[in-house]
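Box 3.1. Reading complex inputs
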Amino acid sequence: MAGEIDLVARLLAFESGKALRVASHLHVSLQPHALVVCPLAMAGEDTTIHTVAIGHVGKPPEFRSVPDPRFREDEYGLFTWLADRIVAYFDGCRSRGDFPQIWVSSSPAAALLDILADRLRYNRDDLVVKRFGELLSYATERFPVAGQQALMTATGALRQHFATGQQEAEDEHLGTVLVWIEPPAGRNVLAEVAATELIPMGAKTDPTFDRQVLDPLVRDYNQARRKNADPKALARRAQAVHDVLVNVVRPVYEGTQRAIRILGRLNLPPLPALAALDERERDEFQNFMQSRDAGFHLPLKDKPKPAAFKLADREDAMDNMESAVLHEDRLGRARARLAGDVLRGTVRNPRKVHLGPWRFEYSLEVVSQQRVLRVRRRDELSLLLDTRLKAVVTDIQRHGRTTTVSLRLSSGGRAVGLPHAGEVIELGPGAPDWLGIIRTRVQMAERLNNPPWTHSDSGIPSCKPQDGGAPRDLLGVLEGLR
Amino acid sequence: MNSSVDGRLARLRGSLPVDEPGARGFERVARNPDCTRLRALTIVGIDSATAAVQVYGEPAREGQSPFAIAIGNRFDRAMAENGAAELLELYRTAGRLTTEECKVVIVPDMVPIGSRRDLKHVMAVRQTITQKLLEQKLRRDPKAPNIIVKPRVLVTLLGLDHGIEPDVLVASDSDAFYRPVEIKSYPDRAGKTESADIRSASRQAAVGVVALRNIACRMGVRDVAALVPALGDLVLRIPGALKPTLRPMTLKGEVDSLERAIQEAPSNLEELEEMLPAGSALDDPLVLESIPNSYRSSCREYCALAQHCKQAAVANGDPVVLGDVARETLAAAGSISRALDLARGTGAPPRTPAEQALAEQLREAMNEYREAV
Amino acid sequence: MSAAGNGKIPELIANEAVTAVLKTQWDGEPAVRLDSPPGAGKTWVVERLAVQSMELHREQCMISTQTNEQAFDLARRLASGFPNRTFHLFVRKGLLLPDVLNGLPNLATIRSGNDLPVGPSVVISNAAKWSWIQNPPLFDLQIVDEAFQLPDYRFQQIAGLARRFVLVGDPGQIPPVVTCEIERWKCDRAGPHVACPKALTERHPGVRRLALPVSRRLVEDTVRFVQPAFYPDLPFTALSNNGGRRLRLTTPVSGRASADSALDLVAKGASLCMVELPAKITGEVDEEVAVTIVRMIERLFARRATMVEDGLTRNLDPSMIGIVCAHVSQVNAIRERLPANLSDVFVETSDRFQGLERQLMFVHHPLSGRADASTFHLAAGRLCVMMSRHRVACWLVGRTGISDRLLRHAPSGDRTLGIEEDSEFEGWRAHLSILRKLADERRIISVQPGN
């Protein structure tokens, strides 16, 4: 069953009171210039930012708040302030031929950026705010794609490398995950986690804090504003709101930075796939920016053709990431072995059959003790050590716990050579094909160039009946053709 | 009339204050039909948050932020103002109501909570007015309203009468009866809408369906399911604006789980009293603990006692503290420490074939993990 | 004897329905959606549509399947069914074909788009291969088999390859597998992830829709369980009344084995029953279930079972038996315990069993031995496939207590705005209704393990 390794890791983490590593390589591409963005919305006002902390990796934050984000002018002031920083960062990345990377604390923060991007990029009144929305959209549109490196959640990145001793749902709280990874000495980890859980680490403030602290201060400000108080008094009240908000968002910022440091300090070798993923991200960013320059629209709802492209992209990314982790991460490989997606066994009876001049057929058997195997006849497997060697399963025999898989090489017999008898080898899915999507896109463009009526708004074409009617005993006539 | 029932409820509540569970309270019971503890609290009229604070001494935590409450109220008001103009427009655009079908009744306006604050009386009058409107519709009176805002129906659930206030009831003139509408200020983001928000809104609408069926039954309707199908409307908010979106929802699963939960034992006061020692009350932590719970990782979404139940699970070494998958996979072992024994080959040897199979699985995973990491 | 309301025998109704489908092509319908319950002979319909197109209309016909296996199977059936006609199989270079295909002289294998036949022809390939074709000709007719397993974004890539098409599929089985995030399209009933017949009907409600009303595979007794649970919107009846298909046990007297009474029940005419082992949480692999299934099969042979099918009596042969499970680990557990003489018994997961049939089926109940019912295990499509493979009889094997657990199930309640489907609830309800009906009709036999 999938997930046994992660289950064992969680058991051990619970017992020892400390999170365990579950990756042999680094799965995220830590961009040294990445931007950490920690926005907090006002509760119930999901398209607002009440306060934000922003800064580059390893640098202290800048804070910005508005006393009441429900006042559009003030709010747009904050958006403009943020926009300046985002634009500067994106432009810098573009001129370097690089890609921007934004880190947020957890999924709710990513969702906040997403809802803002979806709204602000259609803003007609304020071009700076509109640009802000557009640029954010790069990160938010990349977010659902497996292997993307544009918008990272600290919780997501940590989850790829660590197993805590709590529930998966609880891992969405950055504070508790950090406690598991670096438990404070001499304290019970669960008690520490329970205390930490009360500290907000997402995109919202705590309701009790809202009622007891924030709401009264916001009201004070609003009251002063209504009564046209003098600017100093107004500024004082605005500052009061800012001060309490900064105290809430600072830990979120620091937590996110800490997560990045932890990942860096793991000193894990990077997953080889990261090179391809970076390349992909650079291409995607360049295309995105050129599209914006050309004035192309980013729709909220997809028509069938762009939907098909996007889904194909995502499926391709998913397949490649799964393959990359299986091939390149020892834990990923171990998971695949346990799940039966990788065949591991001893080579038996490797043989080369001479079929004709320069024509050979290579065959072998692999004997495995794996409890679970998902291999079937006619599956094509690749040698994990060198994926140029591919073999097709011709037979599978299971006797008790032992499975004997017979294979015939379909390629790589000469380039790689037949494995030796007694060797332990691993066979599984092919290596990731990072360039495959380009070919797919070209082919899809060709096929979808003229949208068939089935996928357009035009009506159903009219019937064109055959000449002559159907024979009376149609089924009988067809039988007669046997 | 119900003084003896009220008396028994009060005794079971002990020192705890009464809360009207409302739609929110009921739909939670159906989320975890196995949790007798939550059901008991709901029957007796104790909110789980109250229990958490007053029975277990946890610090009081605010349920909802005042800002969220404010926008919720503003949105509700915006939907009701000008004779529910926004709602009418919404339903017209969706083709659900014609321009002629514009009869609106706003129940709270008819019976406002005055300075005297005699809540019980106000609620009773609202119930009466609602009852009359529903009867009017059942009679197929063409003057029956198309939109009723904040009606109040008295429904017998779990053996007791409770007030349920759907946000709105809607019906065209040709509809046989009303359909419940839940208005929420959550942003409607199509497929990106928060699933927890959709869940709670749908489940509350389902309580509206159950309430209407309950009323219809009392009014002598035979086939209540045909009169009140498992359908409800969610009215959500366009992100960043005070404008509504309309999402009709089929609520078969939600209504079914509610109706079943309501029938499960203890389904009423008698059964609950039988479960407990005589004279006991739910304000006593020991009494509450004696009622079986059913802790899952999803409890945190809707029950304030989740933290407490989790601590108990930790103390028991219940695998659920590692997640629902762990709970399922390690069920044969029964506890975290046993699972670790099986994985290491320590402690007592496997006692059942299932433990044997699990031990093999875990040992294999343990070895693979150690080698690879 | 079953009839669909107007007194006609099922065979006639079935033939009329097929004729109606065939006639749509004479009418020149640009698109036809054909919903087919299990075993309704849709492959048979696909074959006839293809032959009609090639021979009677002199057209170029293409068939799109979901997998290579399905393409092979279809090619074999067409070529062996119509030995005087030539058919074409279009596969990628280097693909290993099953031996049986190499022995068919009227089946031509082509490996390049340049070698597509000109003139009236039938070309079979899988949908993915078709989407990669370069400079395609415009076919006259495209038939998509198992269309409910083809997501719309893949169909979109081949929809333009033909003038007319027919989408044939079973709406009750396992839906298309899309693993990535689909949040942007979730609320779109015609989204790229949606099964293409559904998306097509959503986008063009006027598209011609037909259904096959008769199952040739399932007997009436099974249809009474399967249709209401999995096909509430697609009424259908069985071709074979119960008398026509029977299991006979030559040794009528039950042995000491308690599972024998489950065999007797089938011998008396029940086509579906459940064998329940004592309640236990076991995890995925349940040795006792595996052993019980193998023992029951051995008992069938020990009691010299024979099969009566539409007049023909044959001795039971292992190749007539299938065992289906939800997980590969369960499949392996059973295979490990099958003795060599039973190696022809086909054991597979439900995913791999789609499109296949056997006279007798054994099902490792997907919810057996679980602490909780998860969305995966509740999926109606999976249970539907498992319970609709048998021509004569099917035994579900699992632990007692599944109904109770279902009634205590805490639903996750994941819903999508504006989408009616609630697959978790539908699966839950299907599971429960099947178990209830089995109990009501006294089809549940309790056994002790080791018997």
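In summary: Residues 212 and 228 of chain B are 7 Å apart (CA to CA).
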